[in-house]
Automatic annotation (TrEMBL):
Its main location: membrane. InterPro entries: Glyco_transf_92 (IPR008166). It is an enzyme of class 2 (transferase). Belongs to the glycosyltransferase 92 family. One of its GO terms (molecular function) is glycosyltransferase activity. It is a single-pass membrane protein. This is Glycosyltransferase family 92 protein. Its EC number is 2.4.1.-. It comes from Pristionchus mayeri.
């Protein structure tokens, strides 16, 4: 399993990055991290996991302004992400690919790994090119250097994320495979009771959330 993380811009939340790597350990992946700019502490975290052979860091610099002062980076945020997504697919050497952000995790109840789960699903249908995982909020408190807190589901809706077979991807969008490289390939939604995308967004950890239902994670 290889996990692509889109470009990090001015990123400084080193505890969340450690949590990301440690929670993903269950699935034994390697990571391709696109980096534009980040703090010194984030750099130390990345180097730590790089030395373990888990992280490949891809430098993703901003573009130079033209002689007349035109800044090509002014509107490149989304374009840059899409370029990184598809560049990552070309770099992948893993059997299974995942595209998500530093605050997202695939949760499969029990002891099954994502590789086991994906291989089983892809083995059922030779025309299956990707799996879509339903979004759920994830609340973890406190999110600081102590890592001493509880994790609960929050019934927050949001976009899905995909697990895919890299050799079948022609064009990768942010939340799904946009175009497959072979005719007839398709996607399947994973039932919520089998697996979930957990999104540890800052707003889900707020103490002022309204109209939400929290459920302990098992």
């Amino acid at each position: 399993v290889q996990v692509c993380v889109p470009p990090l811009y001015w990123y400084h939340d080193w505890p969340k990055m450690i949590l990301f790597f440690e929670l993903w350990k269950k699935h034994s992946p390697t990571f391709i991290i696109y980096a534009n700019s980040y703090s010194k502490n984030v750099g130390k975290v990345l180097e730590h996991y790089k030395k373990k052979g888990l992280v490949q860091i891809v430098n993703w610099p901003t573009l130079q302004s033209s002689e007349d002062g035109e800044d090509p980076n002014a509107g490149i945020y989304r374009l840059s992400h899409s370029l990184a997504h598809n560049d990552c697919v070309l770099r992948m050497k893993g059997e299974i690919g995942v595209l998500l952000d530093i605050d997202e995790y695939i949760h499969i109840p029990g002891n099954a790994t994502l590789l086991d789960f994906a291989k089983r699903e892809f083995g059922k249908d030779g025309n299956l090119g990707s799996l879509l995982f339903n979004h759920n909020g994830l609340k973890i408190t406190p999110m600081d250097g102590t890592f001493d807190g509880a994790a609960v589901y929050v019934n927050a809706t949001g976009p899905s994320k995909a697990v895919f077979r890299p050799e079948f991807v022609k064009y990768l969008s942010t939340h799904w495979v946009h175009t497959y490289s072979r005719v007839g390939k398709g996607r399947k939604w994973v039932p919520r009771d089998e697996a979930l995308l957990l999104h540890n967004r800052v707003q889900f950890s707020s103490d002022h959330l309204k109209n939400t239902i929290e459920t302990p994670i098992t």
